[in-house]
């Protein structure tokens, strides 16, 4: 059955599409193509002239050990944040899904961190874990741990993971809760009658039925960690100590904005662009098809 | 095998809403008990309490000789078929049926034997490898029943299992459920709002209303001798006609000045007191005026093929007569209805209880 509206005029549909197309082209395609173009250029030290150098910027990039280190950092960071925030959110959502008192207030409170700007979130965590000022850093030091995220790369990474996770839990929680609530209650009841205890029920029934949500969230979380944690990194570690917490995105900023290497920075942007396109393609391919059942 | 006994079972929800108000009922081992009533009468709540899916606020539920109030659903040795089938969507038909057995640590070859056997009985063998979403409504219903029978439980519980099926399939599945229950001989409790399902399936029919049992009996008993006006109008289709009347004397009542005889009438009713006169549409016949007859003004006729329904009024009250097609001329404007005294049901207008012989 034809459900779409049909226009007799050929012009009207295009006219209606035009605003959206204009926005997409001006704000997405044009900057993206500029980045691609710029990645083939090299500027002189004063930024007065630029010269076409082909793939020279890319070649230079892959010759840098720092770039590989940023890749590893990003991989560690995104895996840790995705795992931690997904599992915390799932735990909270399963608890919220039980019928508890004040469930509404509980949900609202859990959603708040998502509304906090990344840089602010970063500052909040600094105040808690700053080696000399931090309210929580003191008890940690009291335990005999020489806690110093300003100097110790592992500590810095832990702090980043915590703050990035804290912000992302809200988002994951909302999706998990919606996913849990869409599982028919009678299926859970049938499993209970079938002799499946709460833990077994979770792993054999609930978790498989949540898999589309989980898969969607994994992709969204990876994209989040890649791109939206810039504010947190900038506020908490500034990529340090000694570039140890510089992720791919932070390196784009550090090289281009601080280092003045526009061509190299553009080349990194293009690589990131390819990564996002790949992730989105995977998501569309599998999520649209509903992987699980 | 085991029977089920309910002893003044109550369910009170928060806010003091009493959904089930002290229900006592004995269900014999191997019998088919149907709980029927309008939505909100507490029948599903009662079933869910037997299953262990709702807590019991008061009274006791016994399966066999064991009080199961505090027993987990899994340990009550019951199986339940849900209205929306509640199949596990990510598992194949085979795994759906095997799940309950696997959870109980049944050996693999035993599981396979039982699932194959159930699939054969239910004629779903070709679908064992499929996922539930690849099945039709009727096939899903069979899988849900298969999941129940592989467990070989003491009691089957059915919660409106046929209401999601189309009319034709519903009749077919109804017959199959009955046949299956006969063959397996497992005590079954079946909840429905459909009085045809209730009549056809049950050995023991329980009519519920407002959280209470109105009447318990065999379908024939409930149909022939309804204990309350509610049961009288709920069981039977089209529903029983209820006319306001007056007591004339022993075995005599009048409706709008016309007197009819009654066989089943309580002794000692004061002449002149108000009474409700119930007549089933299929129990009245068009005939000649006599000592026990009513006149009816016909408004219109509904054709049902084999029968015709004459809608009209008797003494100003809506009245329906069901007659075999051709028995009464369809263009009749008035009918004289001869009333068999054994077919008249009398009810107290206040308590709505039957005013029959004790």
From TrEMBL, chain A:
Give the location in the cell. Cell inner membrane; Cell membrane
| Membrane-crossing segments per the record | 12-32, 67-93, 105-128, 156-180, 201-227, 266-287
- Topology versus the membrane: Multi-pass membrane protein
- Tell me the superkingdom of the source: Bacteria
Q: Which of UniProt's keywords are assigned here? A: Cell inner membrane, Cell membrane, Membrane, Transmembrane, Transmembrane helix, Transport
Ranges where the ABC transmembrane type-1 domain occurs: 71-283
**One GO BP annotation of this record:** transmembrane transport
A GO CC term attached to the entry: plasma membrane
Pfam families found in the cross-reference section: BPD_transp_1
InterPro entries per the UniProt record, alphabetical: MetI-like (IPR000515), MetI-like_sf (IPR035906), UgpAE/MalFG_permease (IPR050809)
- Predominantly, its location class is membrane
Q: How does it assemble?
A: The complex is composed of two ATP-binding proteins (UgpC), two transmembrane proteins (UgpA and UgpE) and a solute-binding protein (UgpB).
The record's annotation in PANTHER family points to: BLL4140 PROTEIN (PTHR43227), SN-GLYCEROL-3-PHOSPHATE TRANSPORT SYSTEM PERMEASE PROTEIN UGPA (PTHR43227:SF9)
* Function noted in UniProt: Part of the ABC transporter complex UgpBAEC involved in sn-glycerol-3-phosphate (G3P) import. Probably responsible for the translocation of the substrate across the membrane.
Q: Which family does it belong to?
A: Belongs to the binding-protein-dependent transport system permease family.
- Return the protein name: sn-glycerol-3-phosphate transport system permease protein UgpA
Question: Which species is listed as the source?
Answer: Microvirga subterranea
TrEMBL record, chain B:
Give the subcellular location.
Answer: Cell inner membrane
Q: How does it sit in the membrane?
A: Peripheral membrane protein
What is this protein's name?
A: Carbohydrate ABC transporter ATP-binding protein (CUT1 family)
Q: Please provide the record's keywords in A-Z order.
A: ATP-binding, Cell inner membrane, Cell membrane, Membrane, Nucleotide-binding, Sugar transport, Translocase, Transport
**Top-level lineage group:** Bacteria
One example of the protein's molecular function in GO is: ABC-type transporter activity
Q: Can you tell me which family this protein belongs to? A: Belongs to the ABC transporter superfamily.
- Domain ABC transporter span(s) in chain numbering: 4-235
GO biological process terms held by the UniProt record: carbohydrate transport; glycerol-3-phosphate transmembrane transport; glycerophosphodiester transmembrane transport
CDD domains hit by this protein: ABC_MalK_N
| Short name of one Pfam family | OB_MalK
An annotated GO cellular component: ATP-binding cassette (ABC) transporter complex, substrate-binding subunit-containing
PROSITE patterns listed in its UniProt record = ABC_TRANSPORTER_1, ABC_TRANSPORTER_2
């Amino acid at each position: 059955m034809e459900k779409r509206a049909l226009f007799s005029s050929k012009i009207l549909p295009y006219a209606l599409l035009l605003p959206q197309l204009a926005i997409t082209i001006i704000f997405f395609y044009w900057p993206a193509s500029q980045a691609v173009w710029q990645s083939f250029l090299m500027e002189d030290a004063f930024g007065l002239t630029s010269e076409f150098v082909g793939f020279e910027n890319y070649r230079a990039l892959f010759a840098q050990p720092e770039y590989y280190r940023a890749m590893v950092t990003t991989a560690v960071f995104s895996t840790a944040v995705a795992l931690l925030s997904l599992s915390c959110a799932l735990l909270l959502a399963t608890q919220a899904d039980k019928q508890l008192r004040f469930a509404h207030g509980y949900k609202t409170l859990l959603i708040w961190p998502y509304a906090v700007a990344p840089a602010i979130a970063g500052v909040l965590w600094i105040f808690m874990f700053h080696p000399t000022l931090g309210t929580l850093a003191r008890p940690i030091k009291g335990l005999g741990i020489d806690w110093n995220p300003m100097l110790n790369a592992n500590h810095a990474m832990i702090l980043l993971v915590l703050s990035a996770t804290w912000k992302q839990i809200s988002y994951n929680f909302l999706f998990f809760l919606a996913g849990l609530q869409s599982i028919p209650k009678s299926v859970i009841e049938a499993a209970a009658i079938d002799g499946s205890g709460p833990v077994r029920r979770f792993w054999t029934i609930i978790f498989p039925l949540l898999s589309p949500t989980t898969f969607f969230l994994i992709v969204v979380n990876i994209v989040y960690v890649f791109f939206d944690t810039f504010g947190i990194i900038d506020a908490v570690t500034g990529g340090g100590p000694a570039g140890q917490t510089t992720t791919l995105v932070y390196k784009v900023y550090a090289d281009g904005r601080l280092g003045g290497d526009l061509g190299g920075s553009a080349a990194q942007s293009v690589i990131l662009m390819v990564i996002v396109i790949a992730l989105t393609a995977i998501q569309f391919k599998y999520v649209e098809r509903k992987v699980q059942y | 095998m085991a029977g089920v006994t309910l002893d003044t079972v109550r369910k009170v929800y928060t806010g003091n809403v009493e959904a089930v108000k002290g229900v006592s009922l004995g269900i014999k081992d191997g019998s088919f008990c149907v709980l029927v009533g309008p939505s909100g009468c507490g029948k599903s709540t009662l079933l869910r309490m037997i299953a262990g899916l709702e807590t019991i606020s008061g009274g006791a539920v016994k399966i066999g000789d064991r009080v199961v109030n505090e027993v987990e659903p899994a340990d009550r040795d019951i199986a339940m078929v849900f209205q929306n089938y509640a199949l596990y969507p990510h598992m194949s038909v085979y795994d759906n049926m095997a799940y309950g057995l696997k959870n109980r640590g049944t050996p693999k070859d035993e599981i396979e034997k039982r699932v194959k056997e159930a699939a054969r009985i239910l004629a779903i063998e070709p679908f064992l490898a499929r996922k539930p979403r690849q099945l039709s409504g009727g096939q899903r219903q069979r899988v849900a029943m298969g999941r129940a029978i592989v467990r070989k439980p003491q009691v089957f519980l059915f919660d409106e299992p046929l209401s999601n099926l189309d009319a034709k399939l519903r009749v077919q599945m109804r017959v199959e459920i009955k046949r299956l229950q006969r063959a397996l001989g497992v005590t079954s409790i079946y909840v429905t709002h459909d009085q045809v399902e209730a009549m056809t399936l049950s050995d023991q029919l329980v009519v519920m209303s407002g959280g209470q049992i109105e009447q318990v009996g065999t379908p024939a008993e409930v149909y022939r001798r309804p204990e309350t006006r509610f049961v009288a109008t709920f069981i039977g289709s089209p529903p029983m006609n209820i006319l306001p009347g007056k007591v004339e004397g022993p075995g005599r009542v009048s409706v709008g000045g016309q007197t009819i005889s009654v066989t089943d009438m309580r002794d000692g009713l004061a002449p002149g007191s108000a009474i409700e006169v119930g007549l089933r549409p299929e129990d009245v016949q068009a005939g000649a005026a006599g000592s026990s007859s009513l006149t009816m003004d016909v408004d219109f006729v509904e054709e049902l093929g084999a029968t015709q329904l004459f809608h009209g009024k008797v003494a100003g009250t809506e009245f329906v007569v069901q007659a075999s097609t051709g028995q009464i001329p369809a263009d009749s404007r008035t009918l004289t209805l001869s009333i068999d005294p054994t077919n008249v049901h009398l009810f107290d207008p206040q308590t709505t209880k039957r005013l029959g012989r004790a």
